[in-house]
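TEACHING EXERCISE
Course module: macromolecular assemblies
Task: Read the component lines below, then compare them to the predicted structure of the full complex.
Student: A.B.
Group: 4
Components provided:
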Amino acid sequence: MSTVSDISAAVRAKYEPVIGLEVHVQLLTATKIFCSCSTRFGDPPNTNVCPVCLGLPGALPVLNRKAVEFAGLAALALGCRINTTSIFARKNYFYPDLPKGYQISQYDKPLAEHGLIAINAEGRRKNIGITRLHLEEDAGKSLHEGFAESKEKTAIDLNRSGVPLIEIVSEPDISSPEEAYEYLTRLKEIILYTGVSDCNMEEGSLRCDANISVRPRGQKHFGTKTEVKNVNSFRFIRQALEYEIERHIAVIESGGKITQETRLYNSNEGKTYGMRSKEHAHDYRYFPEPDLLPLVVDEKWQAELRATLPELPEVRRPRLVAEYGITEQDAVVLTATRSLAEQFEAAAKAAKNPKRVANLVQTELMGRLKAKGLEIGQSPVSMKGIALSADLIESGTISGKMLKDLYDLCFERGKDFPVVYDDEGRPEQSRDTSALEKIVDDIIAANPKQVEQYRSGKKTVIGYFVGQVMKASQGKASPQIVNELLAKKLS
Amino acid sequence: MKVTEKDVSYVADLANLELAAEERGRMVRDLNSILDYIDRLNELDTSNVAPMAQVADRYATDNAKNGSDRFAYASRDDVLEGLRKSLPHEDALANAPQADGTFFTVPKVIER
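Instructor-supplied answer key:
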């Protein structure tokens, strides 16, 4: 990525970045927050619209209870305190994709406050405070190119107008682009666990603005901040922040002053640019929304929400490590999504030996996924498949070698374990001692030299015999029985 | 005088209003008279009265119920078109000053 100038590490170290993030998350309701139009993404433009979300005069908003429920769940998952009474407010500004001339949001009385997200900052746990979480409606979408009259005009699609959003505002507790990245990763993970949003950044269900300033280390008051908008991936946010930090330092070091402004990140160039905006564009003249009653989420409703809260990854990880004896790293992978974590636990519990399931995930699954460059969500072998394979090993039906071969076939064919196991005719390792005895006898007869070595004390030669027998039985023999037979016949 | 002509120009600008000089003068008078009235209200001690954002809060709720239930009547379930159908596409665009058959269109917006 490009940088403003070559700032030496020594100069860089004199300054401390201060970062706060504002994250907007679309809620997965079927209908919009104040009307019953569909929230579906990708429908033909301006087909999911009605007088309310078009901002036609006289149309009145009616609050979607599900949106409140989802926002409340997210708030609890982020450790926020829900305000029993919160107030909707109008945020007034003019933009073509905001037909009413105001956005219904919440201002001085948000739905929830005082949350936190624990992040891993250079190996240490650090809490990033969440100032507030509030409900609001999304605006429509402006298209600047890609349609017939795009030279002279901007096109407006109002399907998104009125889709429910939560805005999550962090405290300025973040002190590096890396921490910002980690905060966003954890935030997304938690929201995904609650199931209230798909957090799909390509479709705009999760959007992030970053406030950034730098100050000389040890200085109490904050430097002048800039706001970086229009960043559509966590990686780009990290890059944009990196760029802004260097730019701020370079301006200050050369005796200049940072102007408080909104900047856009251009990911192709790896640079931010100041937006030419009206000087008082930020005077939103908030006032209470007269068309909506106060939002009351009483103790009873809060308790109901709390009861539906799933076990969150931060709690689940150490429990999985303790219960199944897996490594912390694998616990992180297995808790990446709630569905995966639940599948894993269901499989482990259904299997005869839960630890064996965990073990197979670690030894057989992870490596193969890595070799193929697959995410665990794309694994051909499901958790159910792993449970079956674990049971087959546990009962001695198949050998470890056979299991490895079957897993290889699964990855080759892109099929789940139970399917491949059936396709292969439900193979079993040979436990038929009389057939094995014949093979063992033949091998002993064919290798007098090795027999001599064994009998003269070189017991490790038994490995050679086991290998030969396994080969002759096409991997179907039970290694345990082969070992027993060999020991008996060679002595 | 609390509100000056400069304040009026600023607020008018924020509201995308173009006011003639004579209109501005009238606004200065009206707004000051409103603020004078607010001053009279401020003579009352309201330190123990919760701010009220909405009169319906007090007069239009279902007082037989408590907590969230009092307000439940003014909310709805998440049911597709449960309240009102979305408009047919042509109807949605029909009264727009400009539309191209698919989108509403406005003069080119330049972001930077």
